[in-house]
Design a protein that fits this description.
Layout: H1 19-27, H2 35-44, E1 51-59, E2 65-72, E3 82-87, H3 94-106, E4 116-120, H4 125-130, H5 152-161, E5 168-176, H6 179-193, E6 207-211, H7 217-227, E7 241-242, E8 245-246, E9 252-255, H8 257-260, E10 271-277, H9 286-307
Parallel strand pairs: 3-4, 3-5, 5-10, 6-9
Antiparallel strand pairs: 1-2, 2-4, 6-10, 7-8
Keywords: Hydrolase, Metal-binding, Zinc
InterPro entries: AstE_AspA_cat (IPR055438), Peptidase_M14 (IPR000834)
Organism: Pseudoxanthomonas mexicana
Length: about 300
């Protein structure tokens, strides 16, 4: 096995992590921002206009328990289409969380009486506080959306949406691709799994991930067209790819989301997409990243409502 000269500091090259290595990794994680201050306060401010539900609790021991919140349309009507918005599946992806909150604050009211909204702004609060991709068990929640999920975060969201699985028309999951993916998280993943780290590139700009098994290319194009007015769209690399996947349309790649255990596979929604914002771009500000997420959500809902 050809291993890189520079390896992640935890573990032995070529050997997957065991309990000791995972414990060492977890002991190094530090709280860098507060979920209750950033997310909890924002959700409390919405209670006058929306129904707020605590749908579960993440519990990693003393001092590491977190309530999980979903925000629903107040006048839920089973005769209306249901739209699902999720953010913070990867807790470190800031605009996914704050874009969802900004959508609730600024635009969600536009759909009163027209669509049912179910918005989960922060699926992974432990990761949000530590600005990390994984949960406390060194698991990626966005590879864990499957039956008997080992990730608390994924299992709780699956249970929340289970009664609506066949009634959700559109599901948009808000993400970011960051420079730390390449500098921190991909090397850690390789080390955890006992595999060699293969360097890659980070695309400069916004892109979407469609479901290769339930393709909706016109839906993806409509979202890209709207977001392009807010921020720049990621170009394909020299191989015609974005992060190793062929570009099938401007700013669009595809994954088999259910087999990978991704969040957009948890319902039978006709329209699904995963946003990817690039917050480290010199061409984008944090507010622009949030605005791009909001634009994507609005475009996705509008397209689904217009096309049924």
């Amino acid at each position: 096995m050809n291993l890189p000269a520079r390896f992640h500091p935890i573990g032995t090259p070529g050997q997957p992590w065991g309990a000791a290595e995972k414990a060492q990794w977890r002991a190094q994680q530090r709280v860098r921002r507060r979920y209750v201050d950033d997310v909890g306060v924002a959700i409390d401010a919405l209670r006058g206009r929306f129904d707020v539900q605590q749908y579960g609790t993440i519990d990693y021991g003393p001092g590491e328990t977190y309530p999980l919140y979903a925000v629903r349309s107040r006048d839920w009507d089973d005769g209306l289409p249901t739209m699902l918005v999720t953010g913070g599946v990867h807790g470190y992806e800031t605009s996914g969380v704050h874009g969802a909150l900004q959508f609730l604050e600024q635009r969600a009211g536009d759909y009163a009486g027209k669509a049912n909204l179910l918005v989960v702004p922060c699926v992974s609060p432990w990761g949000y506080e530590r600005i990390h991709r994984w949960n406390a068990d060194a698991l990626d929640p966005n590879r864990s959306f499957r039956a008997d999920s080992p990730a608390q975060e994924s299992a709780a969201l699956i249970a929340l949406v289970a009664p609506l699985r066949e009634r959700v028309l559109m599901h948009i999951d808000l993400h970011e691709t960051t420079d730390s993916d390449e500098s921190e998280f991909r090397p850690a993943l390789a080390a955890r799994d006992g595999k060699p780290f293969e360097p890659g590139g980070i695309p400069d700009g916004f892109y979407l991930v469609d479901d290769s098994e339930r393709r909706q290319p016109e839906f993806q194009r409509a979202v890209i067209a709207t977001v392009a007015a807010v921020t720049h769209i990621a170009p394909a690399d020299a191989q015609g790819e974005i992060i190793g996947s062929p570009v099938v349309a401007e700013g669009v790649i595809e994954y088999p989301v259910r087999s990978l255990g991704l969040c957009t596979g948890i319902t039978d929604a006709r329209y699904t997409t995963i946003t990817e914002v690039y917050p480290d771009s010199p061409k984008a500000t944090p507010q622009q990243c949030n605005d791009a997420q909001v634009a994507a959500v609005v475009a996705a809902i509008d397209y689904a409502m217009a096309n049924g």
